[in-house]
Amino acid sequence: MRVTLKDFFELIKIRILIPALLTTFFGYAVSLDSSLWDLLDLMWLLIGSFFVFSASAMLNHALEVETDSLMKRTQFRPLPTKRVAFNYVLILIVLFIIVGSFILYLKTNMLVLINSLGIFFLYNFVYTPFKKISSLNTFIGGFPGAMPLLSGWFMVEDSINMFILLLFVMLYFWQLPHFFVIAWIYRDSYKAAHLKMISLNDTGGLRTRFYLVISTFLFIFSLYLPLLYGSLGGIYTVSVTLLNIALLYYVGKFCMDLSDMIARKVLLITVFYPLFIPVSYIIGSLS
């Protein structure tokens, strides 16, 4: 069976993978001065992480193939449509997790390896099944979503300080408004798949608005806390402040009319954060 590049990118969830790798790079970058960056070490870290994160994404496809077939937003993925054989994906998962773990074991350290495998486990064996149990799944999923930051940090450091902890909290809180608004946009699909998102049976949108507003303010507040313990540069501060203004504006508009069109604008703004935050810091460090 021929697998197209498009199918492969969808299996490894390239739109999630790229921000995850950028976040890994970010964790490494904040751990030491840019003049001390070891590009070879960084390369092996990102390659190993690529394989483990990709294996995690592919396993998620395999575990949720039946669920995906019930949802309009996912029913055309490679496995539900049988464009890619299920057994072929299983082989890729085993191959990628072995290769990724082997690279991280040889070229990084045990903390990086354990953290990466922790992401693999929490995402697929805690967060994924919990989506069918409770709407609290989003709060659980935030942990593996923020953990790539620690892979980069542990490449250099063997303990956690307040600075990296607050960066972790920041990335954790980012995911809440991001996924709450996704839950609203695709509420009918999630309901059809029997997934217990916060939008389930929230016909008036009261619950969604409450969670979205609270999580948005917590996220924005968390963006500035790391500045009390370390420097992220002027580019970072300007970038997140501009994004925050836009985010608050469209969250406010969404709360007034619950428009899916406005919800998509909120979603678009949240997508920029995990891209702009690492890039703005890295540019500032190298300038």
Please outline the helices and strands.
Layout lengths: L4 H7 L2 H16 L9 H25 L1 H6 L15 H22 L2 H21 L6 H10 L1 H7 L7 H24 L1 H6 L13 H19 L9 H24 L2 H27 L1
Helix pairs in contact: 2-3, 2-8, 2-13, 3-5, 3-6, 6-7, 6-8, 7-9, 9-11, 9-13, 11-12, 12-13
Q: Quick recap of the structure?
A:
With 287 residues, the chain is mainly alpha-helical. The protein is built from 13 helices and no strands. Helix content is 75%, strand content 0%.
Describe the protein's architecture and organization.
The structure is a single chain. By secondary structure, the protein is mainly α. It has two domains: 1-159, Tetracycline Repressor, domain 2; 161-287, Four Helix Bundle (Hemerythrin (Met), subunit A), CATH 1.20.120. Helix content is 75%, strand content 0%. The chain contains 13 helices and no strands. The chain has helices at residues 5-11, 14-29, 39-63, 65-70, 86-107, 110-130, 137-146, 148-154, 162-185, 187-192, 206-224, 234-257, 260-286. Helix 6 (110-130) packs antiparallel against helix 8 (148-154), helix 9 (162-185) packs antiparallel against helix 13 and helix 11 packs antiparallel against helix 12. It is globular, with a radius of gyration of 19 Å. The model has no long low-confidence stretch (mean pLDDT 95).
